[in-house]
Request: fold
Amino acid sequence: MANDDTATMIDALIADLTRISKGLRDTLKNVDDFQNELKRAKDLESKELKQMIQKRNQLFKDLTKITDKYDQTAKDVIQKIGR
Reply:
């Protein structure tokens, strides 16, 4: 009878360990999925930031061209008035 009790306890322990192992695997998978989602979000945000920086740089270049053209026009007008 003692052998049956020992076998039952061992079976119960094995069942508990199996359940715990499955729980750990599920938790690790959830953590891995979460980390992958964070990486995708970070990559997307980085890409959007890079695009915004490029757009800002282009706007500054355009503004510089406009102010240079304005300055040149103003100089031309002043020269023509002085003649």
Notes: Helices lie at 2-82.
